[in-house]
């Protein structure tokens, strides 16, 4: 009974045994009068009949669960691939954002440098313009001093 293959009980066997279980000879009192050791055997047979009935309900569900588990495994592997792709894209996006921020800072610095150069050029032109008048004055002074 310990090694009995309870998961594969033939339907024909169950159909043969069920009518015997309801006979008067299978009542607990009758069995007990014949042999005390047979009561656990009757309980085991009743349990196997019930187990067989439950398996008829559970086995299709197990098959569906196994099928769904296989589908879930496929979906989860696809999900893992997609998540890896998303991580790679996010890393690339982060790199691009960092690079963009660095380039924006560099562009801002270049604009500031250009503005500074324009200011220096303006001041230099002003200074050159102011020195132009000095050149004429110095030229006149040199000419005057040369005559003297």
Overview of this structure, please?
The chain contains three helices and no strands. It has helices spanning 11-21, 28-34, 38-147. Helix 1 packs across helix 3. It is rod-shaped.
Estimated structural class: mainly alpha
Largest sheet: none
How many strands? 0
Instruction: Choose one word for the global shape.
Output: rod-shaped
Determine the mean pLDDT: 92
Helix content: over 70%
Spatial extent as radius of gyration: 51 Å
Proportion of residues in extended strands: under 5%
Order of helices and strands: HHH
CA-CA gap between termini: 144 Å
Low-confidence stretches: none
What count of helical segments does DSSP give? 3
Tell me the number of structural domains: 1
Show the helix and strand layout.
Blueprint: H1 11-21, H2 28-34, H3 38-147
Helix pairs in contact: 1-3
């Amino acid at each position: 009974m310990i090694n009995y293959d309870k998961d594969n009980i033939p339907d024909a066997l169950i159909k043969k045994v069920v009518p015997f279980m309801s006979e008067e000879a299978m009542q607990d009192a009758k069995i007990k009068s014949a042999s005390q050791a047979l009561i656990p055997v009757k309980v085991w047979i009743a349990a196997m009949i019930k187990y067989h009935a439950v398996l008829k309900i559970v086995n299709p569900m197990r098959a569906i669960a196994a099928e769904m588990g296989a589908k879930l495994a496929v979906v989860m592997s696809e999900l893992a691939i997609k998540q890896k792709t998303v991580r790679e894209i996010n890393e690339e996006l982060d790199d691009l954002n960092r690079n963009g921020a660095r380039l924006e800072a560099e562009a801002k610095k270049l604009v500031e440098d250009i503005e500074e150069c324009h200011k220096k050029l303006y001041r230099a032109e002003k200074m050159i313009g102011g020195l132009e008048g000095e050149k004429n004055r110095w030229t006149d002074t040199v000419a005057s001093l040369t005559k003297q």
